Amino acid sequence: MAHAMRRQAAPAGLLSTDGRPHPLQDSLMAATLVLGAVAFITAMFHHLHLLSSWAGLLGILAGAYGQFISATTRERFLLILGLGASAVGFYLGMAHGGLFGGLLG
Question: Measured at the alpha carbon of residue 26, what is the angle toward residues 60 and 7, in degrees to the nearest 5?
Fold first, then answer.
């Protein structure tokens, strides 16, 4: 009888295992994904090295802190995707001219 009275929790989403909201972690995850996409896409163009290197660096920092405080598998998975894209964009941006390429000297 007690089992019939228990309410079922609504599914929290893909791989969100605890069913609670995580606004800070989700914000860092979204920021890392956006910065990673910007860094990765702009790294394909040599003249956009400033944008790709700075977006990549900020994406790496946001993703690293997001990994540090992440609570669910979904957050960790998407943070790793964003971190990978940020790292590739950062490294290619550094190879094409760096963070300050031509502005400081």
Answer: 150
